[in-house]
Specification:
Elements lengths: L3 E3 L3 E3 L2 E4 L9 E6 L5 E10 L2 E6 L12 E8 L1 E4 L7 E3 L15 E4 L10 E2 L4 E3 L3 H4 L4 E2 L6 E3 L5 H11 L1 E2 L7 E10 L1 H13 L6 E7 L4 H20 L4 E7 L1 H14 L13 H9 L4 E2 L5 E9 L8 H9 L2 E4 L2 H5 L12 E2 L15 H25 L6 H18 L9 H12 L12 H7 L2 H12 L4
Parallel strand pairs: 9-17, 14-20, 14-21, 16-17, 16-18, 18-20
Antiparallel strand pairs: 1-7, 2-3, 3-6, 4-5, 4-7, 5-6, 8-10, 11-19, 12-13, 12-15, 21-22
Helix pairs in contact: 2-3, 4-5, 6-7, 9-10, 9-11, 10-11, 11-13
């Protein structure tokens, strides 16, 4: 039984102040009992001498300064963990909301996690196959990596998240060693239902653990959601030796909740009103991805964020880019042209890709094919820029070939559609098929021996035709 106090010093918004408090810790959990006997949860967010500020999860409506009892529980926020959490749905604070009852806990864990000794980390190797060519072929996701998706308002990032959950797998997966932790922050009810229904209909729900914070839920809960999700992921990865993919959407909603929370505490704002500690706060989430030497498991992160006004210099994508190991950028022009997924390949990057592909992981020619596809697509954009000035009819034959390559690349390779799942071999073969539509002299990033073995225009047209028909 922790310290119990009667009465409140002050009530301000969702915060209450306690006075004459001793031996209290930051982020310590608090039980608040109202005069009618109902109990609310809170958390210590600020300490000044013997005065403590407590954030009330359910809000302060109905609280009385005189008749409210508070009990300091003596521990930070914890969630119940066991293998049973796979297939379950929780709210942003880790409480079950799927009607299946409480989780029989094998352990309780602090949602802030334990700091990993850098020496105990293992360098990320091998890859996770998402079934999406623009990611697997050009911006490969490596186990233990943190690779964000930069999206914008109205873009299909929710659809892309569902597709990744449905299709993701590891090369040596026996069906039991891979799982997904999905954290949704500030989503509307229909979006939350879409996620859950999609996972159930495609039969992947049994390997998914969901944490859902709705747009009408308390903002303090929104700031807890990714930490609950990552704590669950760390348990599954480091104690049950599973490979866990964590998808967090929308990080921008999380940061806006953090900004509102910071403002309510009277903290001095930084750029665009966000708190000055936004960088370190985001780092405390992203740096929980990785692999440790004492476990066979791994935690891989795909944080999804929406860029306000498509501004990649906005504080949220800007700081995220500093911390993470690359980014997948969704392109609005591709989206408006009906390309799905609208991944802007030249703006996207996976910094760890080189360490988890090639012989022994994907295929020996993977890096060479990716380099040539990038170079050829860059030529496409140059040809389009020239065509906008002089007209496509006035282009050279070489530039016209690049223009046609660009149309096929966007329609077939990038725009594979929602229902198509490609293996890494199918992706690389399709890449070769597209490169075979170009003059052999244009393939200046490839070894002549590779070109001789794989350059086949006739076979290329059959492969592209099958891809266009969705029969690949």
């Amino acid at each position: 039984m922790g310290l119990q106090l009667l009465g409140l010093e002050e009530i301000s918004g969702s915060l209450v102040a306690l006075d004459h408090v001793k031996n209290v810790s930051n982020e310590e959990m608090v039980e608040i009992e109202l005069a009618n006997g109902s109990v609310r949860q809170g958390r210590v967010v600020q300490i000044e001498g013997e005065k403590a500020m407590v954030q009330v999860f359910e809000g302060t409506a109905g609280l009385s300064k005189k008749n409210t009892k508070t009990r300091l529980l003596g521990h930070p926020m914890e969630i119940a963990l066991s293998k049973e959490i796979l297939g379950r749905v929780f709210n942003g604070a880790g409480k079950p909301i799927d009607g299946l009852g409480d989780v029989y806990a094998e352990k309780f864990a602090d949602i802030n996690g334990k700091p990993l000794n850098p020496v105990s980390r293992q360098y990320p190797r091998n890859y996770i196959n998402t079934g999406i060519s623009a990611i697997d072929g050009l911006n490969t996701l490596i186990r233990g990596q943190k690779l964000p998706i930069f999206s914008g308002s109205g873009m299909p990032h929710d659809k892309l998240a569902v597709q990744i959950v449905r299709q993701a797998q590891i090369a040596d997966d026996d069906g039991k060693g891979f799982g997904i932790v999905f954290g949704a922050m500030g989503v509307k009810n229909d979006v939350a239902d879409y996620f859950k229904r999609s996972f159930e209909e495609t039969g992947v729900m049994e390997k998914v653990c969901m944490f859902v914070n709705l747009s009408n839920d308390p903002i303090i809960e929104r700031t807890l959601t990714p930490r609950c999700a990552l704590t669950a992921a760390e348990y599954l990865a480091y104690e049950l030796d599973m490979h866990i993919l964590v998808i967090l959407t929308d990080i921008t909603s999380y940061c806006e909740a953090l900004r509102e929370f910071s403002s309510s505490k009277g903290e001095i704002p930084g750029r665009k009103g966000y708190p000055g500690y936004l960088y370190s706060d985001l780092a405390s989430l992203y740096e929980r991805a990785g692999i440790i030497k004492t476990s066979k498991g791994s935690v891989t992160q795909i944080p999804i964020l929406t860029m306000p006004n498509d501004d990649i210099t906005h504080p949220v994508p800007d700081l995220t880019g500093y911390i993470t190991e690359g980014q997948i950028v969704l392109d609005r022009n591709l989206h408006q042209n009906g390309v799905y997924p609208p991944i802007g390949c030249l703006a996207s990057l996976s910094r760890l890709m080189k360490d988890g592909i090639g012989e022994g992981y994907t295929r020996k020619d993977h890096q060479d094919v990716a380099n040539q596809l990038f170079a050829s697509y860059a030529q496409v954009l140059e040809a389009r820029s020239l065509a906008s000035v002089i007209g496509e009819d006035e282009l050279s034959e070489s530039d016209k070939r690049f223009m046609e390559f660009g149309r096929l690349f966007e329609k077939v390779f990038v725009g594979q559609g929602f229902g198509v799942k490609r293996s890494i071999i199918e992706t690389l073969n399709l890449g070769w098929a597209l490169l075979s539509t170009l003059p052999m002299s244009a393939l200046d990033r490839l070894d002549p021996e590779l070109i001789k073995a794989n350059y086949d225009p006739e076979r290329a047209m059959r492969t592209i035709s099958l891809a266009l028909q969705g029969e690949e």
